[in-house]
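Is manganese (II) ion placement plausible here? Inputs below.
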Amino acid sequence: MYLFVSTINEAVIDRRYDNPKILSGPVLTNSPNAVLSKTLLGRYNDLSLPADSILATYIWIDGSGEHLRCKDRTLKYIPKVPKDNFTRVITELNDKYISKLNANLKWKHAKEHSPPYFCPKDLENVFTIRCKLRERENRNSFDENLKDLPVWNFDGSSTGQATGHNSDTFLVPRAIYKDPFRRGNHILVMCDTFKYNMEPTESNHRVKCQEAYDKCKDDEPWFGIEQEYILLDSDLRPFGWPPGGFPPPQGPYYCGVGANKVFARDLVEAHYRCCLFAGVPIAGTNAEVMPSQWEFQVGPSVGVSAGDDLWIARYILHRLAEEYGVIVTFDPKPVQDWNGSGAHTNFSTKKMREENGIIEIEKAIDKLSKVHMKHIKVYDPRGGKDNERRLTGLHETASINDFSAGVANRGSSIRIPRLVAEEKKGYLEDRRPASNCDPYAVTDALMRTCILNE
Ligand code: ADP
Ligand code: MN
Ligand code: MN
Ligand code: MN
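Reply from A.M.:
I modeled the complex. Tokens:
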């Protein structure tokens, strides 16, 4: 008898507590002692780096459409500081001194470092990276930085994105965030991926999403995504669950308080702070229905940046979890008969947010009702297969086969929040996307169905 079956890193794991063993897929190694690795790095973290260099972590979605990869490089390039970070710069005297020094050095390096770096000469124009307009002021100066960042490449045959004999795959910088791990001027760079012939790779849903957003910018589509996830111990059992059994039934854990209700609150708090520091607009966080299940909300973010923000938030969470020696799973249903994990996507347009916007909301719901299965196909990375386990009609979900909508109804596909119904304006909540969805694909589908009438 299986107590539960889980898919982590493509491995199928037999979850019998007395004898957990991996049935297929790669064997996971335990992360090193979290405290030790923290101390080890701590000894070297304060070594000063060359004043004209920063470290950039290029982050991308691999061939699974679900997992992230990253690699680091040194750039002789100093990002412009976001406008509202002046206060921080002034308080951090050391940083201020360094950036002054950098400003003097910048001219010298400007020529050397114009993009693209690793790009075939005749394709340079393909990678003219445009500044994106974002709502929040403090992002603008970061977006200006984008055009200074080089295109890079990686071995796509090791990430499920290319064949071995033609493996060079391109990374195109799309959004910059401050690096909460290295801090200072160091940056995280969200990239999308292109094949040797400059076609987007199969798992690159960002290109289409950007296209959709470009066509409906004037409608100002906003997205707020509620990312649910579950923490696992290094033995792949939910973190903090009693050895050899289950915790008491779900009920006291949602928004719980107390050591017997929630686990790893410190990790969650660290994630919240790191995201805000990085420039990811976290709206809030809460403990979820299953012990060791949590949620954070990103947004509202405008258009394609919702996807950038959520992927970077996921990256930061995985990185922090490495330090804590736990594993984050976005699998939508790791434990049978307990609540699964979703990525409820809250969506509005300018018209929906104006007086009597409820009419626009109802129009959008009507359109969504006609293409239910089309959306289900892009709401998880396996064409709906993952959501089959989660959207059962139980555990605060609607059945995967039926479309439904309702005010304050958490058992429907689309929910109109109570306050939105009362105020007759606001947004709708699409409860169908799975926790491991690609937000570029989800927001793309919503823009195309509800705004572009495709
Ligand atoms: P729930 O009641 O479903 O748990 P949450 O409070 O967890 O809702 O999440 C609500 C999300 O909706 C947040 O991410 C928030 O940023 C987002 N949101 C709020 N207003 C809007 C809006 N007008 N358009 C899109 N998203 C919105
Ligand atoms: Mn929520
Ligand atoms: Mn939730
Ligand atoms: Mn919700």
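Short version: The longest strand covers residues 168-178.
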